[in-house]
C-alpha cells in the first residue's frame, strides 16, 4: 500500500517533499522502475561481451590486423564517451525519460546494422554508433534512479545497473558459445550482433511507462507533472510546492568547488575501474585464450565460467552496498584486483617460459578472482557514485561527463592492449596493470568518502569539504 503523505498546509517546501521521498520505503514500484531503467545496463553488458566472442571470427573473416582489431573494439568506447557528453545537456533540458527511450531505439537500429555489415569499415561505423547509444544511456540511468530512490535503499537500487550489465555479459557469452557451435564461422558473428536488437525493443516498450523524475520536474517548474510522478512513487501531494532553485549553467557549475571535487574523486574511481583491466578480460577474454592455444568455442567457454561466478558476487554487492558502504566495498574490491593481477602476472611469466601446465591454471584462477572482486566492490559501486553525487540541477551534464571519463579510460586501455600484446607480449602488460591497481588502492584510502545514508541533496555539502577531510566522513 502506498505511503500517503498528509500535507495540511496550503504550500510546502521542495525540501520537505524530497525528505519524504528520501524516507519512503522501497516498495514494489521502486524496484520495478529501477529494473526497467537498468535494462539499459543489459544492453551495455551484452554489447561489451559480444565483441569478445565475435572477435574470434570477425578477425579471419575481414583479415583484420592487430591495429584494426584495436580500432574495432575501442571505437565503440570512444563513441560511447561522445554519446555520454552529448546526452548530458539533453537530459537536463528535455528530461530523463525521453533520453532513456531514444537511446534504446538507436541501439536496436545499430545492432541490426552491425549484423548486416559488409566490410570492416562498415562494421566499425555501426559498432561505433551502438557505442554512442550505450554511452547516452550510462549518462542518465543511475542518476535517474538516484533521484527517486529512498536514501536507505539508493545503493542497491542503483546497483541494479551493474547487475544488468553482468547479466547482459553472461547472456552474450552464452549466446556466442552456442552460435559458435551451431552456425558457420562466416555468419555466427552476425547473429551475435543482431540479436541484441531484441532486448532493445523490449526495453523501449517498457520505458514508455516510466515516470519522469520528480526532482527534475520541480526544477523545471512543472508542478502538476511532478505531483503525478510523486503519486506513482507513493507520495501524494495536493498543496502548492514552493519551487526549488533552477538548473545550473555549465560555467556556473564548474565554478563551484564541490562539483570540481566530485568530478575529481568520482572521475578517478571510474578511471581506475577501467584501467585496472576489467574490459581487457571481457573484450579480449576469448582472444586471450585463443592466444594461449584454445579453440574458438573453448576460448569463449573459458571466459564464460569466471564471469558466471562474478554474477554471484554482484548479488552480494547489491546486498552489502547500503550496509557496508561504498568506501569499504571499494577498498576490498581494488585490493582484490591487485592480488588477482599479481597472480595473472605470474601466470603470464610461466606462459613466456612455455610452461602451459602452470600458466593456464594461474591465469584462469586470476580471471575468476578478478571477476568476483570487481563485481563485489568496484564496478557497481562506481556507477552508484556516478549517479548519486552530482546535484540534481546539474546531474544530466555532470553524469554525462563522469560517464564519458569512464568510456574514454576504457578506450585507452582496450586500444593499447592488442598492440602491446603483439609488440611486447602479455607479461609486461600485466606488470603495468599491477602498478595501476596499487595506485587505485591508495586512491580509495586517501580520497573516497562514504556516501551511504546521505540524501543526494547532501552531496554538495560533503564535497564542499577539503579533499583531506572528505574521506573522514564515516
UniProtKB/TrEMBL annotation:
GO terms for cellular component: membrane. It comes from Vulcanisaeta distributa (strain DSM 14429 / JCM 11212 / NBRC 100878 / IC-017). It is found in: Membrane. One of its GO terms (molecular function) is transmembrane transporter activity. Residues 33-452 form the Major facilitator superfamily (MFS) profile domain. Its main location: membrane. It is a multi-pass membrane protein. The chain crosses the membrane at residues 29-58, 70-91, 98-118, 124-145, 157-179, 191-210, 262-284, 304-321, 328-352, 358-385, 397-421, 427-448. It comes from the Archaea. InterPro entries: MFS_dom (IPR020846), MFS_sugar_transport-like (IPR005828), MFS_trans_sf (IPR036259), Myo-inositol_Transporter (IPR050814), Sugar/inositol_transpt (IPR003663), Sugar_transporter_CS (IPR005829). Keywords: Membrane, Sugar transport, Transmembrane, Transmembrane helix, Transport. Pfam families: Sugar_tr. Belongs to the major facilitator superfamily. Sugar transporter (TC 2.A.1.1) family. This is Sugar transporter.
Amino acid at each position: 500500500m502506498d505511503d500517503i503523505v498528509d500535507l495540511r498546509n496550503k504550500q510546502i517546501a521542495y525540501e520537505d517533499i524530497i525528505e519524504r521521498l528520501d524516507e519512503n520505503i522501497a516498495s514494489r514500484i521502486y524496484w520495478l522502475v529501477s529494473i526497467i531503467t537498468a535494462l539499459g545496463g543489459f544492453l551495455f553488458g551484452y554489447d561489451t561481451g559480444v565483441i569478445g566472442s565475435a572477435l574470434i571470427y570477425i578477425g579471419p573473416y575481414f583479415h583484420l590486423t592487430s591495429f584494426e582489431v584495436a580500432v574495432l573494439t575501442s571505437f565503440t568506447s570512444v563513441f560511447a564517451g561522445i554519446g555520454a557528453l552529448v546526452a548530458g545537456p539533453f537530459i537536463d533540458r528535455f528530461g530523463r525519460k525521453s533520453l532513456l527511450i531514444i537511446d534504446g531505439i538507436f541501439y536496436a537500429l545499430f545492432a541490426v546494422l552491425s549484423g548486416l555489415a559488409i566490410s570492416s569499415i562498415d562494421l566499425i561505423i555501426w559498432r561505433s554508433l551502438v557505442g554512442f547509444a550505450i554511452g547516452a544511456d550510462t549518462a542518465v540511468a543511475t542518476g535517474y534512479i538516484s533521484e527517486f530512490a529512498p536514501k536507505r535503499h539508493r545503493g542497491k537500487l542503483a546497483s541494479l545497473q551493474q547487475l544488468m550489465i553482468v547479466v547482459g555479459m553472461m547472456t552474450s557469452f552464452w549466446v556466442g558459445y552456442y552460435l559458435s557451435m551451431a552456425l558457420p564461422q562466416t555468419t555466427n558473428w552476425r547473429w551475435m550482433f543482431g540479436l541484441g536488437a531484441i532486448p532493445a525493443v523490449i526495453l523501449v516498450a517498457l520505458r514508455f511507462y516510466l515516470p519522469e523524475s520528480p526532482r527534475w520536474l520541480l526544477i523545471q517548474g512543472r508542478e502538476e507533472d511532478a505531483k503525478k510522478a510523486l503519486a506513482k512513487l507513493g507520495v501524494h501531494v495536493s498543496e502548492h510546492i514552493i519551487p526549488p532553485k533552477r538548473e545550473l549553467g555549465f560555467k556556473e557549475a564548474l565554478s563551484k568547488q564541490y562539483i570540481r571535487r566530485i568530478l575529481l574523486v568520482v572521475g578517478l574511481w571510474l578511471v581506475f575501474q577501467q584501467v585496472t583491466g576489467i574490459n581487457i578480460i571481457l573484450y579480449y577474454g576469448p582472444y586471450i585464450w585463443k592466444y594461449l592455444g584454445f579453440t574458438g568455442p573453448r576460448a569463449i567457454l573459458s571466459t564464460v565460467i569466471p564471469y558466471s561466478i562474478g554474477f554471484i558476487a554482484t548479488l552480494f554487492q547489491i546486498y552489502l552496498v547500503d550496509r557496508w558502504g561504498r568506501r569499504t566495498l571499494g577498498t576490498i574490491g581494488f585490493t582484490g584486483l591487485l592480488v588477482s593481477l599479481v597472480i595473472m602476472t605470474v601466470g603470464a611469466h610461466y606462459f613466456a617460459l612455455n610452461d602451459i601446465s602452470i600458466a593456464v591454471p594461474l591465469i584462469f584462477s586470476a580471471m575468476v578472482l578478478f571477476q568476483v572482486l570487481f563485481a563485489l566492490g568496484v564496478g557497481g559501486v562506481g556507477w552508484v557514485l556516478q549517479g548519486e553525487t552530482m546535484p540534481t540541477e546539474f546531474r544530466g551534464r555532470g553524469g554525462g561527463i563522469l560517464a564519458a571519463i569512464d568510456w574514454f579510460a576504457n578506450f585507452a586501455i582496450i586500444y593499447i592492449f592488442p598492440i602491446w600484446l603483439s609488440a611486447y607480449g602479455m607479461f609486461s602488460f600485466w606488470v603495468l596493470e599491477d602498478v595501476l591497481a596499487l595506485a587505485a588502492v591508495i586512491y580509495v584510502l586517501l580520497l573516497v568518502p562514504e556516501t551511504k545514508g546521505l540524501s543526494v541533496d547532501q552531496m554538495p555539502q560533503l564535497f564542499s569539504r577539503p579533499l583531506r577531510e572528505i574521506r573522514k566522513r564515516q
